[in-house]
Each structure stands twice: as structure tokens, then as C-alpha cells.
Amino acid sequence: MSTPPAIRIDNLVKRYDPSGPGEEGKLALKGVSFDVPQGGVFGLLGPNGAGKSTIINILAGLVRKTGGSANIWGFDIDENPRNAKRSIGIVPQEIVFDPFFTPFEVLENQGGFYGIPKRDRRSEELLAAVHLSDKRNAYARSLSGGMKRRLLIAKAMVHSPPILVLDEPTAGVDVELRRQLWELVGEMNAEGVTVVLTTHYLEEAEELCDQIAIINHGELIANKPTKDLIGMAREKIVSVSVDKDLAGPVMEEAFLKAEVVEPRRLDITYNRDQTSAGQVLAIVQSHGYGIEDVTTREADLEDVFVQLTGAG
Q1: What does each C-alpha distance from 214 to 74, 207, 211, 221, 248 come to in angstroms?
Q2: Do residue 182 and residue 112 come from a single domain?
Q3: What digits encode the pLDDT tens for the residues 27-67?
Q4: What is the DSSP string of 100-147?
Q5: 111 and 94 both lie in a single domain
Q6: Taking the complete model, does pTM exceed 0.85, yes or no?
Q7: Same-domain pairing of 226 and 245
């Protein structure tokens, strides 16, 4: 038997109420369907306003769907909302907790909201896991931005959910903090927690995610293992160094773009389904140039994202 998905979304529709009489409410989700496999890191990507946050807010119980269904760890969010909510922890974009509580009190209060008896709460364990034990009794308002982010992750895990959703967790943080956060998330994933991630840092998604779904204008436009998704990129760039100054870009029908980037270096973009690198070099030589050096750049997730969403 195959393992059931951690999250199953089927034909999910959300239309927001109109802002005025005679107007039609915005259709934020247009029948989105996808499964999040158990145990991996799943990326949910898309341009601003694509519908990612609407999906997360529906899963969190903050937004009511218009149609379709959502199932978390086997529990339908309408038929069994309590168990569905206990199966998911959500780390929001915004830093939200009472600044006058200490980190320990933040976690204890959250455990109380979930009805966890004091003897069963994991506040000390979670503070250690997010490297905040030494800040146990500091006011939350005195924590650095990175510490507050880590506290949010601990807060999302107080009820030991099998699924952790991170909504833009590294937006506006520095490179070192981003690395620390991903080490922490990687440790949780290694312990069996399924991670769902939204991010605008595409290189981050490419490195971390096993599978990626891309949403655009409320519709699912791709949902594949990361390697397969990157393989969809058709454009490839070859950078050619020649033996004399270029008179101008060598433009041929086989090229999508040709650009002189240095007096003797030419960057050529071509469709790898229609042209090979060998044909590109042969065309350059046919214009009277000798080839001195060649480098190529493979497609990455950013290329695919731009290709699919038309985001320039």
C-alpha cells in the first residue's frame, strides 16, 4: 500500500466577497489540486498574489474555502477541524507573539491553548532545539530578529504536529540567519516532520525541496520533483570566447538571443530542443571567428519559474 499524503488538496476554490455592490469578488483559487507527500520538504511557489497564502490560511483555519476539499494528515478540515489543526504547525510571515512574555511563557501559553497538560509540555525541550535555552527568561521583545524567527518555529511545534508549514520564513533576514534556520528545519525534517515551504528565494527552494508546486493566478501550473521541474527549462546559454574582437552580435535564426558581453566574448541563448551546443559553435566559426574558450550555464529553478509564470 502506498503511504497516504500528509496534505491532500482537491479542487480548492476561494472567491473573496465583493468590496462593493454590483462587483464580483476576487477569485483567488480556481480549483487547485495537489498532494504533499509525507516525510519530505515540499515547496509551494508563485508570484505575489498567486494564491499561496490563501491556501495556507485555509489549512490554518483562518480563511473559509468556497469549494473543494482539504485534508490534513487524514482529517478533513471541515468534518474534523480539531484533529486537522492538531496535525499542522504554521510559522507565519509576520512575527506574532506578546512581547511582554518570555520565550518559556510563550511556549507554555501556546501549549495551554492546545489543551496540553503541564506535565506533557515540551517547552524546555523546544527551547533547546531552537537554541534559545539561554534566553528562557528574557522578554520576547528583547530578542533579535533571528531569535524571534526561531521562537516562532518552536511555537508552531508545541503540539508535536507531523506537518510544519513555513510561510516565507527567511524574508528579510541575513544570509547567516537563513543558514541557521534551514539547519534547524533540516533537523526537524530528519526526525520525520513533513515540511511545506513558501519562499521567494528560488535558489533556496531548489536546494531544499524534494518536490515543488507552482501556483500562478490561482491555478496550479506545475507540480513535479525538483529535478524534473528544472529539466523542463528549454533555454540554455553558452558563453563563447573568440580569437579577435567581435564586430557585433552573431545573430542567427537558431539563436534566441546573442549578446556581446566583452570585446571577445559572446553569450548565446538557444533552445536545446532545437539546437545543440555543437551547432552553436559551428555557426560562430562560420562567421570567421576562432573559438578559444567555451562555458555553458545549465538551467536552474529561476529559469523554469520565469518560463512558466512569465515573471520577468
Answers
A1: 23, 16, 10, 6, 39
A2: yes
A3: 999 999 999 999 999 999 988 888 999 999 999 999 999 99
A4: TS-HHHHHHHHHHHTT--GGG--HHHHHHHTT-GGGTTS-GGGS-HHH
A5: yes
A6: no
A7: no
